[in-house]
Amino acid sequence: MALKSFVEVHPDSHFPIQNLPYGVFKPEPDSEPRPGVAIGDYVLDLSVIASAGLFDGPYLRNSDCFTQPNLNKFSGLGRPAWKEARTTLQKLLSATEPILRDNESLREKALVPM
User: Fold this and answer.
1) Which of 27, 52, 77, 93 has a Cα-to-Cα distance from 106 of 20 to 30 A?
2) Residue 36 is part of which domain span?
3) How far apart are the first and last CA of the chain?
4) How many domains does the chain have?
5) What are the backbone angles phi and psi of residue 94, rounded to the nearest 5°?
6) Which pTM does this prediction carry?
7) Bridge partners for 37 per DSSP
C-alpha cells in the first residue's frame, strides 16, 4: 500500500509525502528563519515538531538542530540522523498516524501555508 498523507496534496504536486525536501523558511516576514520540509502547499515547521518532543530517536532526541536558523547542524549529523528524521516525518504526516493529524493545536502551529 502506498504511503498517503493526511495533508491534502494535489496529484501534480512536487511535494508528496514521498518527497519531503528540506529548506529554511520564515513563517512571518519579521520572524527568525527556521528549518522545515515541504508537503503539498505547506511547510512543516521542524522547530515546532522538535519542541513537541516528536523527534524521539537516538540521533535527534536531544538535538537542537531544528531550532537553528539554518540546516548546517542537521547536515553535520550525517546519514543516520537524516534517515531517522525522514522516517519520523513520514510517520507523523501519514494518514494512519493520529499524533499530528488529530492534534488541531499542534497541526495549526506546525503546518504553515506556503
Assistant:
1) 77
2) 22-113
3) 29
4) 1
5) -65, 145
6) 0.91
7) 22, 44
